[in-house]
Amino acid sequence: MGDTENKPMRVSYQGIKGSFSYRACSEYFPGGYYQGYRGFQDALNAVENGDVDFAMIPVENSTSGRVMEVYNLLPESGLFIVGEHMVPIHHCLMIPHKAFRGAPPENMTTKDIVAWKESDLSAEEVAAALSSIREVRSHPQALSQCRKFMADNLPRASAKEYYDTAGAARAIANSMSPDIAAIASEDAADLYNMTILQKNIEDVDMNTTRFLVLARESLAAGAISGPAISSILFETAHKPGALFRVLNVFERHNIDMTKLETYMAGPARPNPTFYVDVGANMTDPAMKPVLDEFAGHTAAMRIMGCYPASNLRGHGNPFLPVAA
Question: Domain ACT, which positions (predicted)?
Fold first, then answer.
């Protein structure tokens, strides 16, 4: 996405440098300014307050499903979805370099020390390290995506949730304890001087996270060319067939639905509330009759955003492509 004044885009994300959210920012907004925050709410608040231009927020993963905290925050944020981005997620199991190999042998040159640090581990070294691990730290989503690997290879290790994958790596980077490991990206291992024991430990080969780009204003009408997605939040009456009548509008008009989420009823949402993604630009004037018909079957509705569908959909990941 560009800027008429050629200023770097200011983008908030949850986590620190080396996280997958940081990678999403750098891929979608190359050359931008990326500001990490500890929580999703903080990253969204930065956009609302004008501290940054956009937020890059993970919303669902092809292995572990939706990020429920984000879905709960979206309706309250007042922000608009203006884009999406897909990031292949490949996790690494890593331990602190100091804890594993300690100090380099004496009388080594600087070049030899670098080569020593970067040398591959032997099978015996990996086996010894794995057998000593008793705790693995990472973000809950990463732990969920590597559940089978941990059960098969680290049966005696407990999982400890951390706010960020890269944050977990950084937090133990200077530890001398060989029994604590982290699950994070290869980028994080390089940044924080961690020793990778095994790469690609995710349980599913096509493990992919979908990110949403959020801004204070929606995309202008006519700004989208090609396949588009519309994200809609809506409520229905608590009556038999109410949801069917709403969604049947899309079937009658040959509009694909790519996602449907249900919110639990409560004080903030007394009516049945749903979030739907459809493969159409509902801000297109030609879609007004469809939108009016849809709204007529709801108790309330709000378009969260209409935005270009990622051209990465369906390419090495299970997210459904959207027809033009």
Answer: 231-308
| Per-residue pLDDT tens over the stretch 56-111 | 999 999 999 999 999 999 988 999 999 999 999 999 999 998 777 666 777 888 88
Q: Which residue has the tokens 């572990």?
A: 64
CATH 3.30.70.260 boundaries in the chain: 221-324
Contacts of 304 (CB under 8 A, 6+ apart): 74, 75, 80, 81, 231, 232, 233, 275
Phi-psi region of 151 (alpha: psi -120 to 50; beta: other; left: phi over 0): alpha
- pLDDT of 311 over the 60 cut: yes
CATH code assigned to 92-199: 3.40.190.10
What is the residue type of 66?
Answer: R
What are the pLDDT digits (tens) for 238-248? 999 999 999 99
* pTM exceeding the 0.85 threshold for the entire prediction: yes
- Which CATH number applies to 1-88+207-217? 3.40.190.10
The dihedral of CA 17, 23, 29, 31: what is its sign?
Answer: positive
